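Technical note accompanying the year-one report. For the benefit of new consortium partners, we illustrate the data format agreed upon in the data management plan: each record pairs a sequence with a structure-token string. No post-processing was applied to the example shown here.
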Amino acid sequence: MLVLQDATDRTEHSFTLTDVTGVNQKEFTLTSATYPGLNIQFTLDPPAQALPTGYTVSVHLFKNPFHTQGQIIDLRSADRSEGNGRIGYLFSLEALFTPGALQLDPHRYCYAYFGIQYIFENVATIQTKDADIKADPYSIMDFFDSDTIILVLCNEFCNDINNFNFQNYLPNLFLSGFTFFSKNSLIETLNDNTYLKNKFDSYTVTTPPILNGIYPFRLEKAKISICSEAYVIHLFTNLIQKKFDQVTRFLMIYQVIEIFMPKMIHLEVQQRVCNDLYSLTTDKVKELVIGLTKQGELITALFARHAIPSNELSNLLRQEILDFFIHVNHPEFQDQAKNIGLSLTDLFYAFRNKIVHEYRILHENGVDHEVTKSRIDTINHLSEALVAETITVFVG
């Protein structure tokens, strides 16, 4: 369903799919019961063909600063054994209605067709822009942002996966630049950090396509123990797209690390104490348990044993935080020899503590505040990648 507004009184009129015609191309016609006489028409140019029966799809919206119109992403899940794990495709919505922009074979055409049909027939509109009634022909971009990417999931294939929920895959999609959005959660900012770009390029540049412009993307889902957390879902569906001041943004991201802390206590007690209890002295048990009351120790356990970040991300974030402290002339980080021995955990936890308890360091006299802001932006982008990766690779 698409919605148009009367420019005079702002009354909304719902238009839904009522006819599909054409042999060499498909023409979709949408009409409204409350605004007779106006037909909205869209044409899907690839040749029409026999469409399979018994299949339904769901559609979700994304943006990605690295994705180009001609790329089709073939989504596969490690949790589905048949069909190479394929569960759906990601298409540029504008490209679907741009002649020659995509090379759709019969298989991909079916996903495109059913995805468009879903958008036009769904009882609730998923359009992202307000549109007025006008005399001119309509384009799909009158209703959606021009850089909208649609994820078309085959419901029957997804049902092959136990307890399937596409939200469980959002952190992994985010790691390659795909940010979920909707009209109620519009994208105000996108993470365009090189680390995410390199992840995306690993599928679309260094890996040969299956066919021209079609690239396989194997998804990993988050563990149920973390993806079931309401805040994690809220972060990737409603918060990460929004603009916040820089400190608020970091603390918003850091909340995911806080969620892991009680999980670390249970895992560490089980693995380091219970599983080896009778070989430990009383003093050693006390030492281990006391250590688990310190958040720094728990973060170390998280990054060192239970959700190890990639070396590239760890080194990038570690260096960015260290450069930030050097830039603001923080006295604790002026000894180069000492700095060499600091781990990602040391610096990440220190950054959290300093911006909470020493917020004034962001506004010191004689320090270029624009550089300070730029460095925090980079730290936030890398921290977003860190929590997305942590959620995806967490073992527990």
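Partners are asked to follow this layout when depositing records. The mean pLDDT is 90.
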